[in-house]
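Posted in: Structural Biology > Protein-Ligand Complexes

Title: Requesting predicted complex, adenosine monophosphate in pocket

I'd be grateful if someone could produce the 3D structure tokens for the following input. Sequence and ligand are given below.
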Amino acid sequence: MRLIILGAPGSGKGTQAMFIKKKFHIPQISTGEILRDIIKSDNKNYLKTRISNDIKKGNLISDDIIIDLVINRLKCSDCINGYLLDGFPRTLSQAHAIKEAGIVIDYILEIYVSDSEIIERISGRRIHIASGRIYHNKFNPPKINGRDDFTGELLIQRDDDTIETIRNRLSIYHKQKKILLDYYKNLKTFKIFGFPRYYKISGSFSIDKVRNNIFSILVKK
Ligand code: AMP
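-- Reply #1 --
Done. Output follows.
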């Protein structure tokens, strides 16, 4: 089970990725998380400052940095039975680089939600940093306001979840998604080995319904 999950920020991609990871016992390789971990680390180097500035502005991190990080991560032993790529690849160079590195993708799963719904959702999103658990003030509230259900620790709003940043991120996401889907469509058209199967599912239903729809697709395959 080697898959790419696609979805705009706020589409529920992170929540669904967690379900898939548990069900199929594969690691979720989230480049956003890897980058945020670097920002949180004690290192005071040029790379950390560069990543931090780009993320705050909603810009993509340069391809060479991210490709290196992912290729190294996929060499870890927990990836032997598959992986769930979340937030990667986002550009043609990234897709091309993993193909050249012999990394195979079986499925692309896109969770689709309209931009207007995304903007409504984003303002209520809260995260438990230590575990990666994601809540929403209205759609998936924690049992105690502002606190993680399992640890009781404080939830936070991500720096890049402001409306201005989200508009920028949505526009980048749409452009990059098109480039990526065109790339994989081309592999299929020219019957080049390693083209993935592509599924688009609506992310506008409840979390449970979206999860069941995803499972029914992936279990059947
Ligand atoms: P995410 O949590 O996936 O929305 O990622 C948060 C931010 O990390 C993005 O807005 C980018 O600045 C950066 N980022 C994550 N994944 C990538 C990637 N594959 N390529 C470039 N930048 C990335």
